[in-house]
Amino acid sequence: MHPTLAADRAHLPELLQAVRDLAARELASVDERPAARPGPAPAPQLLPVTGTGADGALALFERRWAPGFSGSAGPRYLGFVTGGATPAAVAGDWLTSTYDQNVSAGGDSSAAALERETVGWLRAMFGLGEEHSGAFVTGATVSNTVGLAVAREWLGERRGLSVSRDGLAALGPVTVLSGTPHSSIDKALSVLGLGRSSLTSVPVLPGGREAVDVDRLDAALTALEGEGRPAVVVANAGTVNTVDFDDLRAIAALKERHDFWLHVDAAFGGFAALSPAYAHLTEGIDAADSVCVDLHKWLNVPYDAAVQFTRRQDLQVRVFHNASPYLGLPALPDPDFLHLTPENSRRLRALAAWFSLAAYGSEGHREVVERNAACARRLGERIEADPRLRLLAPVRLNVVCFTLADDPTAERVASFVRAVAASGEAFLTPTVLHGVPAVRAAFSNWRTSEADTDRVLDAITAATTTAT
Predict the structure, then answer these.
(1) Which sequence spans correspond to the domains of the chain?
(2) Is the CATH code 3.40.640.10 the one for domain 101-346?
(3) Domain 101-346 matches domain 361-467 at the CATH topology level
(4) Rounded CA gap, 211 and 243, in Å?
(5) CATH assignment of 361-467?
(6) Which is one Pfam family of this protein (predicted)?
(7) CA-to-CA distance for 411 and 274, rounded, in angstroms?
(8) Which residues contact 375 (CB under 8 A, 6 or more apart)?
């Protein structure tokens, strides 16, 4: 064994204590850590020939790289839809590396059974039935891709063929209908060879809504059936800009008259099911053929973690099974996970989620959802009262979408976003809503309080003054 590696092995407890001390210091100060660090990064260095050992690497990281890391785990990082990591989730994530389990197959440990238990807990949390099987993947993009890959196989089944065997050329034209799909749907269609142009936009409801007009969706499905073409419908349980929800019950009812695959993108909006005040928004999700939920958003587990669900595990296995003697054949109803997702190599992502669910239960996670939603309403009310700002949509759940009241050009809005980030007090991300350059503040961190919300407002007010 290399002497440096041997020395690290001999002093592993001391090394882990040093890492623990650094992590504890960082987490203890994350509430006050700058939400963003937009400054220049250190210049790259050459690969060392002789390493410094783990202690030296830790010191080098703390000196060169740690100062430039953002406070994305903290309470005022409101960019994208980014959760933090609950204490239990951090513990679970550390142990994931410690045990370093391979969850591709289940023949060597109980790790795959733990993932199945965690999937079952999540299924119950989101109001899905026993017929929905699930598996962990890296994020919403892969979850959407897996769901649409199964939908692609279903389309082939409807035409008496297997796309996974016969290829896309045998399938012919495909139509995917949606009102306001997330950009990851486009990406998934590209990856799957269905093509971005297969996505057909269905008109949304009037009045600035992002929810699909179900009557227009009905008409689009009728037209496709007239051509003898089954379709895929992508419904939204929470749009990215305004957290608008499609009427999932009404869309599901269309399945009584039309033949289509229903995929629900519930990346973060699915967590509305936890709260009695918002659960009605997800009613009907149980009728979906596939569902995407992103866990490093509102479940507040570390990156990267998501889960995908489907009713047609048999088709999923047909798409993703890996035929190799050393891996074995997929055995229904509980095939090894490598036969269900794109990855053969799978870490135990479920452990961080298991820890957080076991530690806080559905009640603890409901409190986070409701507190975040209350903070979003608080910020929305303050923005609406400021004549220099304009709220672009009602605050439906946890996202506040707004812009400058006067001349909201892309340049001025970008300058405003940079000013907020430069303050270190908050981090927001830009967007465009109905052609208007805008800003999103997305609340999904378990630490965020009313006091944090007021500090975000102060940063917005200061940046608004600069922008005007």
Answers:
(1) 101-346, 361-467
(2) yes
(3) no
(4) 9
(5) 3.90.1150.10
(6) Pyridoxal_deC
(7) 39
(8) 443, 448, 449, 450, 452, 453
Angle between helices 350-384 and 450-467 (to 10 degrees): 50
Instruction: Give CA separation, 310 vs 78, 198, 300, in Å.
Output: 31, 22, 23
User: What global pTM score does this model have?
Assistant: 0.96
d(CA 212, CA 246): 6
Cβ pair 197, 171 in contact under 8 A: no
Residue in the structure block whose two tokens are 């800009």: 241
Give the burial class of 13: count Cβ atoms within 10 A of its Cβ; 0-12 exposed, 13-18 middle, 19 or more buried. Answer: exposed
- Helix and strand element counts for the chain (H, E): 16, 11
- Which H or E element spans position 199? strand 199-201
| 3 state DSSP class of 432 | strand
Q: How far apart are CA 381 and CA 20, in angstroms?
A: 41
What secondary structure letter does DSSP report for 254? Answer: G
**Sequence letter at residue 318:** R
**What does the pLDDT profile of the chain (468 residues) look like in tens digits?**
999 999 999 999 999 999 999 999 999 999 999 999 998 999 999 999 999 999 999 999 999 999 999 999 999 999 999 999 999 999 999 999 999 999 988 889 999 999 999 999 999 999 999 999 999 999 999 999 999 999 999 999 999 999 999 999 999 899 999 999 999 999 999 999 999 999 999 999 999 999 999 999 999 999 999 888 899 999 999 999 999 999 999 999 999 999 999 999 999 999 999 999 999 999 999 999 999 999 999 999 999 999 999 999 999 999 999 988 777 778 778 899 999 999 999 999 999 999 999 999 999 999 999 999 999 999 999 999 999 999 999 999 999 999 999 999 999 999 999 999 999 999 999 999 999 999 999 999 999 999 999 999 999 999 998 776
Structure-block tokens of residue 71: 């406070």
Please give the full DSSP string across 337-367, using - where no structure is assigned.
Answer: GGGTSS-SS---THHHHHHHHHHHHHHHHHH
